[in-house]
């Protein structure tokens, strides 16, 4: 058992996926593919999200797969930005930076969670959008559920006030820092540069600008005995930090894209494989939108309701 790694997840299978022009300005991870038209990109993304769902189910993870047939939600494949779940039956709903992402919040997903799992309280921070205050869920924050720390790279999508409110409500310590890529572009979401697992952490330490803060982050991440795997800027650019540890009946797995896994050095892979089996899925189309496997997965940290027979 591990409080860090859930055994059930929510995935969204998009029917009209596409890189979102409304988020391209502050997401340096986005890219374009001039060789395919919009329809081909949408079809390929649908296939890739299906492959991820199948890979997780084959690994023993419970997948709650939702369809999104709306044409106005190009980023809906990334549900971890608008909600998160927490032990004790709590769900957080988040304020989103881009107006065209706010319709991704779906009552049917919340209702399924309430039906299948024990949900006691829903804390909705989305009203902060009216004040221009944003915090895009477990994209903006990488949560250490063991040490109760919310690591957060400062950006348009992660406001310090919203972070303080989340941490006060859910019992986390905020640890905010400034991080940017080698060109000086701010990291738009913390989960592209950091993944906290039970026994190790993947993190692009060099992207944290202040050396003292960089050391503080490293010290806190390794405090419970985790081994730190320091990712290079190139590895972060290839989404090596955008991974997630999940739990299966056969043990823990680390899920990441094939592109990300290909960048791992032998020594880094050995550290991971001491406690996790690496599961990879090839999702080059979805990665055009500037997110990878971690962004696609909303972990469920809730207790299941008993099955009535």
TrEMBL record:
Protein name in UniProt: Amidinotransferase
Annotated coiled-coil segments of the chain: none
Database matches in SUPFAM superfamilies: Pentein (SSF55909)
UniProt xrefs under NCBIfam families: citrull_CtlX
Pfam families with a match to the protein in the record: DDAH_eukar (PF19420)
Organism placement in taxonomy: Bacteria, Bacillati, Actinomycetota, Actinomycetes, Micrococcales
